[in-house]
Amino acid sequence: MSAITIYHNPACGTSRNVLGLIRNSGEEPVIVEYLKTPPDRGTLERLIAAMGVPVRDVLRVKGTPYEALGLGDPKWDDDALIGFMLQYPILINRPIVVTPLGTRLCRPSETVLDILPSPQRGAFAKEDGVPVVDGEGRRV
């Protein structure tokens, strides 16, 4: 069993880049396609707590029902916002990565490098061609 888990959306370029960086470190993570198998309340609460960020920082706005639901309104407390994320998993920003070194929302994708236990094994460029890691495995 891998020590790394990624809450992944294969339709998201950032999520695919993060998965690529994890694999470039020689690891094959547990991949949770959270739109198909959303986390339960306890798991989502633990992930947010482990990231040490406000619940609102985990909400995705673009391409979601965020505006239609009025989630920008401060009347919604953390419990209610988590409820909306459980009801509409697309509201959970991604990718969230869990490793022995920490849990992070990996936006931008290079953020994952801070919590990977193994170094990069070679060059890596994002899907758009922007280099992230050089041939020696060092962050560009």
Question: Can you describe this structure?
Answer:
This protein is of the alpha+beta class. The chain folds into two domains: 1-34 and 94-140, Glutaredoxin, CATH 3.40.30.10; 46-92, no CATH class. Helices cover 26% and strands 15% of the residues. It contains four helices and six strands. A four-stranded mixed sheet has the order 2-1-3-4. It has a two-stranded antiparallel ribbon with strand order 5-6. It is elongated and about 50 Å long.
The domain tally reads 2
How much of the residues is beta strand, in percent? Answer: 15-25%
**Mind telling me the CATH superfamily name of the largest domain?**
Glutaredoxin
- In DSSP terms (H or I, runs of 4 or more residues), the helix count works out at 4
Number of strands: 6
On the 0-100 scale, what is the average pLDDT? 97
Query: Judging by the overall fold, what is the CATH architecture of the largest domain?
Result: 3-Layer(aba) Sandwich
The biggest sheet, with number of strands, parallel, antiparallel or mixed sense and barrel status, is: 4 strands, mixed
Query: Class by helix and strand content?
Result: alpha+beta
- How many angstroms separate the termini? 30 Å
In CATH, what is the class of the largest domain?
Answer: Alpha Beta
The main sheet orders its strands as 2-1-3-4
- The helicity comes to 25-40%
* Radius of gyration using CA atoms only: 16 Å
- Tell me, what's the shape? elongated
Query: Which segments are poorly predicted (pLDDT under 50) over 5 or more consecutive residues?
Result: none
Write the CATH fold name of the largest domain: Glutaredoxin
